[in-house]
């Protein structure tokens, strides 16, 4: 008669699976409640940290269990593997942000103008008391920004402030940011747009202020993007400003392509059509107006060259 010895099961293996499942439930519930504004951001962030530590503990337990299972022939390998896999999924987010944590500065407020950053006006009333202050952090913040994000600078367009404001407004709409305050430019008074955006997964709210200032024949765009919570933005605010500038430039290109397509569709008769009375001194017909617009800056550049030549100064072109 052969005796059959009972096989022992690994308790840490089962424990790792249960702990990982519990941590995953905490994470999923926190994300869902925060996304629908049913949980305050600090509470949700703390719960996420707890779930991450739970995942780390579950991974350690699973590793310890697998070693014992291999050495002692215990049961529970499936529990340990399940616990390890769930734990790794929980830790995917923190591991994704780890390079940014190690390489990017610990700042949460990015601006294209350090001396006079766009102010948060309406947004100041929207931030909770436990959120980051809306005042700009100062010199230390700007010095770190310059080293980490040297390309974040004002954008200057050869457009009027009014035209530029409309370009920005359309770009913000396309980015699906919520506009909470807007003021069109008027004379020497800059235009302004304040907007709020939310992160995709957690729904964290971050704030943006865009200022449009009139220059001589141009407009300057300054942008400030700041996190409502947390000391480290992992580069999100700099990416947000770059994305806005990219969208504005894309809007300019779409307008240019639309204009070109419109002119290309005109036949000879349409090109010879007279311009409105207000533009008669500018060009005799539609075709002439298009030609004059295309070479307008070239005409002025030639005039400047003639002036410089008469003053004995070197030419800047030609």
How is the topology of this model organized?
Layout: H1 11-35, H2 41-72, H3 77-103, E1 109-111, H4 122-126, H5 139-148, E2 155-157, H6 161-174, E3 178-183, E4 191-198, E5 205-215, E6 218-227, H7 236-264, H8 268-271, H9 286-310
Antiparallel strand pairs: 1-6, 2-6, 3-4, 4-5, 5-6
Helix pairs in contact: 1-2, 1-3, 2-3, 6-7
Summarize the structure.
The chain is of the alpha+beta class and 318 residues long. 54% of the residues lie in helices and 13% in strands. The mean pLDDT is 90.
Structural description of this entry:
The structure is a single chain. The protein is built from nine helices and six strands, in the order H-H-H-E-H-H-E-H-E-E-E-E-H-H-H. The chain is an alpha+beta fold. It folds into three domains: 93 residues; 152 residues, TATA-Binding Protein (2-Layer Sandwich), CATH 3.30.310; 45 residues, no CATH class. Strands 1, 2, 3, 4, 5 and 6 form a six-stranded antiparallel β-sheet that branches. Strand 4 and strand 5 form a beta hairpin. Helix 6 crosses helix 7. The longest helix is centred in the first third of the chain and has 32 residues. It is elongated and about 110 Å long. The model has no long low-confidence stretch (mean pLDDT 90).
